[in-house]
Design a protein that fits this description.
Elements lengths: L14 E5 L4 H13 L3 E6 L19 E5 L7 H7 L3 E4 L6 H4 L3 H8 L4 H9 L3 E5 L27 E2 L17 H20 L3 E6 L2 E2 L19 H11 L3 E4 L5 E3 L1 E2 H13 L1 H4 L2 E5 L5 E3 H15 L8 E4 L1 H5 L10 E2 L2 H7 L7 H25 L4
Parallel strand pairs: 1-2, 1-4, 2-3, 4-5, 5-7, 6-15, 7-12, 8-11, 9-14
Antiparallel strand pairs: 10-13
Helix pairs in contact: 1-8, 2-5, 4-6, 7-10, 10-13
């Protein structure tokens, strides 16, 4: 039976160029494309580890997916692959906060300068582009600048982030943590300008803390020993090692978390409904799953205690942002997405509660890493 879009039109198979398509988000998107659609994927990345299973010749979709080991900084094949596709999805980025203020140059190059050729090739060849940005482009909330005793401090209008209304408020230049947000904002503005002046068909995605299996890495196991992944993997690493979960500056920052499977369904709607998605910027998150980092840590300890015997006595410890991330770190207070535009255009809403997505994710983390960590702890390298 033919698959139909939201307007009842038959969906034609597409060839999709996925840049950075073998990472956390890309691996889940590839999986959905192969198992639930007839689209083909040209995957570009520096490693195929997270999509190895999908590339096996025995899979029924093996003729619909191909992998190219390419660093887009310096490979001339990129232009040809974009031109041979119907749609390009750019997921490539340095997106771990620990890198923003310690590797600001790499962050700016990766998230702005390296993306410019992608935009250029899509414009010149009249190819549609779905570009992944970040919720960090909003920066700090208006509410965070109000005095603590101000009558409007509790007004949600000063905290909810809207694609077409909210300003982008970053910290001072010396707070190099904002290099990521600034680079992402600049490439958004370039894409929008190409659409306005040269007719580029684009969609910009602003993810709000998507989490789930295969996210980031566990230091010393499938990533650098001294590496610092994002909060879910950081907390998971502490849980797996039986260590206190480290709360940066007391864990006061608040975030909303969205299950990767829910989020990828939203991306598929963007892919298959271009008339509704072109020219749009979409928040994609779950405003119902808001917690402080301290609450997240406590919930993860509780959930992991049910998954792993003997881990119920785990606790937390406070660390300073300077000690954890280095000089130049800064942060936003809250990130709550307004869902009006994506609901109106695509009819999408997130479904998975935080407790459920943490159970799935921590079960995966435990099954994937616990034995490797146990072995590493029993045979330390001196």
């Amino acid at each position: 039976m033919a698959r139909l879009d939201l307007d009842g039109k038959e969906i034609a198979p597409l060839t999709i160029c996925l840049i950075g398509g073998a990472g956390f988000i890309g691996s889940h998107l590839c999986e959905l494309l192969m198992t639930h659609t007839h689209h083909s994927a040209i995957v570009i990345d520096v490693s195929s580890d997270k999509i190895t299973r999908l590339l096996e010749k025995s899979c029924s979709w093996s003729n619909r997916i191909e992998f190219h080991k390419i660093n887009i900084k310096n490979d001339s094949r990129l232009e040809t692959l974009i031109k041979s596709s119907d749609l390009t999805i750019n997921l490539a980025a340095i997106c771990t906060p620990a890198d923003y203020n310690t590797r600001p140059l790499d962050t700016i190059y990766s998230n702005f300068l390296d993306a410019i050729p992608v935009v250029k090739y899509c414009t010149e060849s009249n190819k549609r582009l779905i570009h992944f940005s970040t919720c960090e482009v909003y920066g700090k909330t208006i509410g965070s600048f109000l005095p603590a005793d101000h009558s409007l401090r509790q007004d949600p209008d000063f905290y909810i982030l809207k694609e077409d209304v909210s300003p982008c408020i970053f910290g001072p230049v010396e707070k190099q943590r904002w290099s990521y947000a600034c680079a992402k904002q600049m490439i958004e503005r370039l894409i929008y300008a190409e659409g306005a002046e040269h007719g580029l068909k684009f969609t910009i995605v602003r993810p709000f803390n998507w989490i789930g299996p295969r996210m980031d890495f566990i230091p010393g196991i499938d990533g650098p020993t001294e590496g610092v992944p994002r909060v879910l993997a950081c907390f998971s690493n502490n849980l797996l090692r039986g260590e206190p979960l480290k709360l940066v500056d007391g864990g006061k920052s608040q975030r909303t978390f969205c299950y990767i499977k829910d989020a990828i369904e939203a991306v598929l709607l963007m892919i298959e409904n271009p008339e509704r998605a072109n020219g749009q910027i979409f928040n994609v998150g779950n405003p119902n799953n808001e917690v402080t980092m301290r609450q997240l840590a406590q919930l993860m300890i509780e959930v992991y205690g049910k998954i792993s015997v003997g881990s119920s006595d785990l606790t937390t410890v406070d660390v300073s942002s300077k000690d954890f991330y280095g000089v130049g770190y800064d942060d936003s207070d809250k990130r709550i997405p307004d869902m009006t535009i994506i609901n109106r255009q695509l009819g999408w809403n997130p479904k998975t509660p935080l407790q459920d997505l943490l159970e799935v994710t921590l079960t995966y983390q435990h099954q994937t890493y616990s034995q490797s960590i146990k072995k590493a702890l029993s045979n330390p390298t001196y």
